[in-house]
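Quick one, T. Sequence first:
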Amino acid sequence: QVQLVESGGGLVQAGGSLRLSCTASGLTFRNYAMGWFRQAPGREREFVAVISWSGGRSYYADSVKGRFTISRDNAKNTVYLQMNRLKSEDTDVYYCAARFSVTSTILEFKEEGKYGFWGQGTQVTVSS
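Structure tokens:
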């Protein structure tokens, strides 16, 4: 049974930082590209970032580029999202997702439909 468990969310002031983690089990982690998405109530899920299976390539939404960094540790089955210079508009539930892929092609993985497994989400609240 595949499980993705996010952690690290919380309340932070605007301009602050948080690091989200997502630990996977039940799959061969190094065979998966990993993505982060976010969603606010009443809105569609929004792509944030994706990283290739090796960690060699990453891609970001324009809204977070230069502020967020995605990384992974395949030995720990964990993907991270370092979020700096947080803004009130970053307030959302953040989800990690896994997509089977052993290539470095990740641009197409901006769509949530490309992912087969999802975590339950972790709330990030940025106060202004």
